Each structure stands twice: as C-alpha cells, then as structure tokens.
C-alpha cells in the first residue's frame, strides 16, 4: 500500500510541475488549478499513472502499445475525475470545450494524444528509476505524509463544496476570504 501511495503522490507532483510548465509556456492568464490547498499536487495525474501502471503487460509492451492504451486509460481517468469534480463538488478545474475533438469539455483529442505520447515515452524510464526509491521509503514517513495529505484533502474538499470555485484553493485566496 505504501508504494501505491508514494506512486500516486509522486505522479501527482509531477503533474503539478507539468501544469505549471504548460501555464508558463502558454503564458496562461490564470495559474492552473492544482486540486489541493497546500500540497503541490494534481491528483488526476497520480490516478492516471496508477491506472496506466495497472494495465496488463500485454497492453503495455512497447512504445506504440503503451502510447495507445496508456493514452486511452489516462483520458478515461481524466474524464472520470472531471465528472466527479463536476457532479460531487460542483467545480470544473479545466474546460476543453474550445479545443478540437472535445467531449463535453472534459477531454479532448489534442490532450489525449499528448497523454499517449507522454505515457509511451516517459512512463517506463521514470517508473524504472522511481520504483526502487519509492519502495525504500520507511513506513513512518509514509504515515506522516498520509496524515498531512488527508488533512489537506479534507480541508480542500470542504472548501470546494462551500465555495464552488477551485480558485479558493490557495493560501492567497483564503487570506482574502
């Protein structure tokens, strides 16, 4: 269980960095909504990585197979997470409705293709390097981080339900509220 948690947290953090990099590269007017209050995490990336890593080896053997099935899996997770955020919390962290090949603004063809390429090219070498490091983290550290993560998640979910706006999830926004 510890390895699953650390894999989720690590890829959620990588997703946060990817979002920040994308926002800087595209000169986005608003910083990306990361999904948690204090922790620099985008949970959709962590869930997507876990789902792709759970695929049967027959579907992930080689770049093209991993790109296809990994991209489809990551897109399915992205759709599901968006649906849950929308239906359970009444918030939208992203909206692809202006992009080509979008489905309900939740997923779109350009990003699905990007997830496929990213999954096929980056996941195998990153996972080979990370796996042993994450597996060696002591249980006491995992429990401590789990407490912080859980507290952050509970506060974030409550704020989202109350405010209905992902913009509330920052210390700066809380200071103004």
UniProtKB/TrEMBL annotation:
Keywords of the record: Membrane, Transmembrane, Transmembrane helix
Keyword Membrane included in the entry's annotation: yes
Cross-referenced InterPro entries: CmpB_TMEM229
Coiled coil: none
Membrane spanning residue stretches: 6-23, 35-56, 62-85, 106-123, 129-155
The protein's name: ABC transporter permease
